[in-house]
Amino acid sequence: MAILITGGTGYIGSHTVVELLNLGTEVVIVDNYYNSKPEVLNRIKEITGIEPTFYEVDILDKEALAEVFNKHRIQSVIHFAGYKAVGESVGKPLMYYKNNIAGTIALLEVMEEAGVKDIVFSSSATVYGLDNPSPLKENMPTMDANSPYGYTKVVIEQMLRDLAHSDEEWSITILRYFNPIGAHQSARIGEDPQGIPNNLMPYITQVAIGKREKLSVFGNDYDTHDGTGVRDYIHVVDLAIGHIRAIEKNTEKRGVKTYNLGTGIGYSVLDLVKAFEEANDITINYEITDRRPGDIDTCYADVTLANEELNWRTEKTLMDMCRDSWNWQQNNPSGYDNLDAVTE
Ligand code: NAD
Ligand code: UFG
User: Fold this and answer.
1) Nearest-angstrom CA–CA distance, 207 and 227
2) Ligand 1 mean position to 80 CA, how many Å?
3) Which of 152, 155, 193, 329 could form a disulfide with 205 if both were Cys (CB 3.0 to 4.6 A apart)?
């Protein structure tokens, strides 16, 4: 029996595939390469010694997706595929609603037809919106998501709860990620943002390598210990391992389970800059600029539920995250476009 990974060549998906393959689990990946590259598959093979089964399929294409379910005995699905740029979603809401929501409906319909009713879904801390106070708990209301991207997650979560309510055979786990950063310790897979990075850590590493002149720190007048925004940064490998635990739990227990995946610790923008400088013995050029519209002061998780029910705890420190992000960037200055990429 195999686990189907949608979006498995993406940032979080590829790290999860590596952890699954290392455990000897059979994996089938589908991705349309909208935001990833075929080279990822070579890198996964390099790390694990296993060539993952891959289909270039858009999840909106039900026929192609159904064929994958026909070819393989799929036990459960981890559903990463989706668009994720908050700012872009404000300008292109229909594109986001179509890909994320219609894509998930297509996947769920194909799963239902194939009799596979076991799914782990990538949600986001963004569903907690602007008003819930940190530490954020799974039972807090999730209405005001603040962007079309965020609303796709709110809607999909509701759709999954309704589905489980309508048919008790479904096993569904919703994972709300906080801020994933870092890369595999081999430095062979990592985050490969296209164009100017939206997120803090890839921006820092691009300043460090000289691709960008300086980091803009978006506001220093927030209600936090140093005035800059506080987030819950989690190492992508810890996050990937969270999915393994979720898959195990999902097969044990039907219905919907929802878990925060974070460390439970909040660090500010300047804390992260300082940690990066210290971990890598490098100076990051930065300036304080205006706030970025839509940003909140503080966002970090209460991780009690995941600790207790999934028996999962993060192991990597902020130093590990900073070191692994920098190793990845240094070894792959142009991401997966590297000319020195290893292809066997
Ligand atoms: P990513 O863009 O690196 O990976 C997503 C993958 O899905 C890409 O490889 C892309 O090509 C693929 N994809 C997109 N639409 C598709 C479609 N219609 N059919 C097939 N493949 C498709 O993103 P990521 O950071 O790995 O995020 C994975 C999931 O986690 C996403 O759903 C994202 O919204 C969610 N998430 C990410 C973060 C984060 O900060 N990275 C935070 C919270 C939640
Ligand atoms: N920041 C800067 N400069 C930058 C980029 C970011 O100062 O160039 C600051 C932001 O203002 C914020 C912090 O760094 O205070 C983190 O910003 P990110 O863009 O890295 O992350 P966000 O918390 O804004 O968003 C992330 C994901 C979203 C997800 C959200 C959930 O990108 O997909 O976490 O909380 F919805």
Assistant:
1) 22
2) 5
3) 329
- Chain segment 80-137, per-residue pLDDT in tens: 999 999 999 999 999 999 999 999 999 999 999 999 999 999 999 999 999 999 999 9
Cα 116 from Cα 85, distance rounded (Å): 30
DSSP at 160: H
In this structure, which ligand is nearest to the CA of 95?
1
In 10 A of CB 183, how many CB atoms?
A: 29
Rg (the chain; Cα; Å): 19
Q: Which ligand is nearest to the CA of 147?
A: 2
Task: Confirm or reject: Cβ of 36 under 6 Å from ligand 1.
Answer: yes
Task: Tell me how far the alpha carbon of residue 36 lies from the centroid of ligand 1, in angstroms.
Answer: 9
SS3 string, 180-211, reads EECCCCCCCCCCCCCCCCCCHHHHHHHHHCCC
* Owner of token pair 């799974």: 138
Whether residue 142 contacts residue 90, with contact meaning beta carbons closer than 8 Å, is answered with no
CA of 32 to the centre of ligand 1 (A): 11
Segment among 100-114, 201-215, 245-259 with least mean pLDDT:
245-259
- H/E stretch holding 27 reads strand 26-31
The string of DSSP codes covering 259-286 is EEES-S--EEHHHHHHHHHHHHT----E
Task: Give φ, ψ of 94 to 5 degrees.
Answer: -65, -40
Residue 176: name the closest of 256, 77, 261 by CA.
Answer: 261
Report the chain's terminal Cα–Cα distance, integer Å: 27
Residues 119, 111 contacting (CB under 8 angstroms): yes
The C-alpha angle 144, 145, 150, rounded to 5 degrees, equals 160
Express as a percent the part of the chain with pLDDT over 70. 98
